[in-house]
Automatic annotation (TrEMBL):
Binding site for ATP: 11, 74-75, 104-107
Organism: Eeniella nana
Active-site residues from the entry: 152 (proton acceptor)
GO cellular component, one term: 6-phosphofructokinase complex
Protein name: ATP-dependent 6-phosphofructokinase
Length: 366
């Protein structure tokens, strides 16, 4: 029987539980044995109770849950070869030679490197007497499949990541709450949202909440002109009778000289207009709560596809990342998706903002 392990790694996102559930149940359906790897890569490195078989009923009720019930962690040991040696040994002792990782670009990069290094790890384990040839020989190759769990929707080559729509929903609810009090007092609110270097959450929240203005990293405004432009737009809206002002600032917002645009700077600018202005930093409420229907669906379809990808993989297939493009669940070469994701950051560093914008997926550009 094929034995595979499933793990969540990096920052948590709503829908990760649904992804694990789908992998466990699809795995069992396709007659595999499925191991849960707890606490991200720490589960592989430490083994023991952190790497154990999962049964159908172990994931009962997980479909709608937020966060991840198998835990996630930043595991520094796995970044060192010594940690990866321990991980490979723990896997082989349990007969596991396939790993489905639901995480961000760091986690997926780590997984692909682990696969590339696998033969040399086994060689070293045999040489140092940590494994016998008989133990290692049946597991000459490691299969890796990636799924993207992230509220930021920052991975290239896939339209959506698991958790992004749940986070967007949370942001919209919060801004709706703020809106009622803002309109009552005729106030301005600056709402800072997560997303790291990606402006997807901010742009989508801006559209969904009818914000006056949105600041995102991919289309930075002019360093010398953004304050006047912001004032002009907000004033125009007020003159049309709007009783509130809502400005969404992505946490990675910058101007065109790459200087951060902070919520406090935006607030000070609105105060200069004479507006009673407050800042709300939404923080971790954006990551919490249950998964919205779209994330449950995405996680479930991708989990099933991930198991199929494991069963169909050959030593020559590049590690796939399961994505969604124009409503189709697809397999994308993981390395390409990660390198395109990194290319966005490089474009921004070089002030090639049009390039950064073009590298974002279609949903973002629309
Ligand atoms: P998020 O987007 O939420 O930050 P991420 O997967 O990018 O998620 P990271 O902190 O970059 O988060 O990575 C999570 C874990 O993956 C690390 O703690 C480490 O265990 C492993 N990892 C990341 N990069 C590598 C790498 N280059 N080599 C080996 N392991 C890695």
């Amino acid at each position: 029987k094929k034995r595979l392990a499933v793990m969540t790694s990096g920052g948590d996102s709503p829908g990760m539980c649904a992804a694990v559930r789908a992998v466990v149940r699809a795995g069992l359906f396709f007659d595999c044995e499925v191991f849960g790897c707890y606490e991200g890569y720490s589960g592989l490195v430490q083994g023991g109770d952190l790497l154990k078989p999962m049964a159908w009923e172990d994931v009962r009720g997980w479909l709608s849950l937020g966060g991840t019930l198998i835990g996630t962690a930043r595991c520094l040991e796995f970044k060192e070869r010594a940690g990866r040696l321990l991980a490979a040994r723990n896997m082989i002792l349990r007969g596991i030679d396939a790993l489905i990782v639901c995480g961000g670009d760091g986690s997926l990069t780590g997984a692909d490197l682990f696969r590339a290094e696998w033969p040399s790890l086994l060689e070293e384990l045999i040489k140092t007497g940590k494994l016998t040839e008989e133990q290692a020989n049946p597991y000459k190759t490691l299969t890796i499949v990636g799924m993207v769990g992230s509220i930021d929707n920052d991975m290239a080559m896939t339209d959506n990541t698991i958790g992004a729509y749940s986070s967007l929903e949370r942001i919209c609810e919060m801004v709706d709450y703020i809106d009622t009090t803002a309109a009552s007092h005729s106030r301005a609110f600056v709402v800072e949202v997560m997303g790291r270097h990606c402006g997807w959450l901010a742009i989508m929240a801006g559209v969904c909440c009818g914000a006056d203005y949105v600041f995102v990293p991919e289309q930075p405004p002019s360093a010398s002109g953004w304050k006047d432009e912001l004032k002009k737009v907000c004033l125009r809206h007020r003159k049309r009778g709007r009783r509130k002002t809502t400005v969404i600032v992505a946490e990675g917002a910058i101007d065109d000289s790459l200087q951060p645009i902070t919520s406090e700077q935006v607030k000070d600018t609105l105060v200069e207009l004479g507006l009673d202005t407050r800042v709300t930093t939404l923080g971790h409420v954006q990551r919490g709560g249950s998964a919205v229907a779209f994330d449950r669906l995405l996680a479930t379809m991708q989990g099933v596809e991930a198991v199929k990808a494991v069963l169909e993989s050959t030593p020559n297939t590049p590690s796939p990342m399961i994505g969604i493009q124009e409503n189709q669940i697809v397999r994308i070469p993981l390395v390409e998706a990660v390198s395109q994701t990194k290319a966005v950051a490089k474009c921004i560093e070089k002030k090639d903002f049009a390039g950064a914008f073009n590298l974002r997926d279609a949903a973002f550009q629309e």
